[in-house]
Amino acid sequence: MNFAGLVTEIRPITDMISGLPTTAVTWRVYATFSGKLAANASVTTIYGNAEYPLLISSASGFYQSATGGNTVNHIPCGASDASLRYDSFFTIGSECFSNEVDLRVTPGFSFSSFNETTNASLSTSNGAIYVLPGNPASLAGADFRVLLMQLTTKAAVKPTALINLLGDNGMDDDDNEWWAYALPIPDPALIDCNENQVHDAIDIALGTVRDCDLNGVPDSCSGGDLSVDCDGDGVPDACEIRLGTATDTDSDGIPDNCQCQGDVDHNGAVNVDDLLEIFIAWGDSNPGEADLNGDGEVNSTDLCLVLDGWGTCL
């Protein structure tokens, strides 16, 4: 038997989406395989029957994109809607819909409780989500795994589950089928840059650490002084620069709006003396302070910075 169990990965949330709570966490659940023929193994069915009901639930509810759906058939590849990256959906193999995807659902299979705003669940004792045997999307392939579902909980708590699977071991003989029953969603591998024994994504969702640039990494692991807020807007300067909400033309770590833009001689005003400094250093190999944008030379770009800041200092 090539089936090696389930694994869970957390997909970092790196976008600000209307309706997606800052406390949300996106969980991806895979079936994994091992052995010489693992690449040929597959999953054909996620199911529940009278003996082994299927159950997946979250007390906080699952995030649902307004443009998504309950299965991968509603997640178009290449879609520009960022909310689809975090939609909660079921699949067998594919993370978006393409021509090779042929995911099907048995009659009477209801997703109504799955879409509840709280206490959401999916349960059945007589239904299945499946692909036909041999569907190329269902093969484990080079990474020896098959994506089964993406579940974005609105709180940083792993969903509870009893998952039943039917698949094929991919060997060249009959009776290759394998079954797995009542599988829980396992804990993901620990990604913990600050070594506090909490997954970074959970830390961010709980608000115990900050991820101001939305890169999925706690700011304390990204470098930069997060105690300085020169304009007093409540967002550290390093965060504003990373997010692009503040410019730092000379790359000195201080937002331009907190500096006297174009003040070459640092006397608190932008005037003709700064213009003269630009012309004196124009084309020099060692331009000094006149190189306002820090690109190693003084040219029309630096001149524009002086003219744009003329007579003003913040």
Task: Describe the overall structure.
The protein is of the alpha+beta class and 314 residues long. It has helices spanning 200-206, 237-243, 272-281, 300-308, and strands spanning 3-11, 25-33, 42-48, 54-58, 89-90, 104-105, 120-124, 127-130, 145-153, 160-168, 177-183. Strands 3, 4, 6, 7, 8, 10 and 11 form a seven-stranded antiparallel sheet that branches. A hairpin with an 8-residue loop joins strand 10 and strand 11. Helix 3 (272-281) runs antiparallel to helix 4 (300-308). It is elongated and about 85 Å long. The chain starts with a strand and ends in a 6-residue tail after the last helix. The model has no long low-confidence stretch (mean pLDDT 90).
E-strand count: 11
Q: What value does the Rg take, in angstroms?
A: 27 Å
Question: Which strand-content bin applies to the residues?
Answer: 15-25%
Helix content: 10-25%
Q: Globular, elongated, flat, extended or rod-shaped: what is the shape?
A: elongated
Distance between the termini: 69 Å
The biggest sheet amounts to: 7 strands, antiparallel
Uncertain stretches of 5 or more adjacent residues = none
Which oligomerization state do the chains in this entry correspond to? single chain
The secondary structure category is: alpha+beta
Look at the structure and give the mean pLDDT.
90
Helix segment tally: 4
Q: Which series of helices and strands comes N to C?
A: EEEEEEEEEEEHHHH
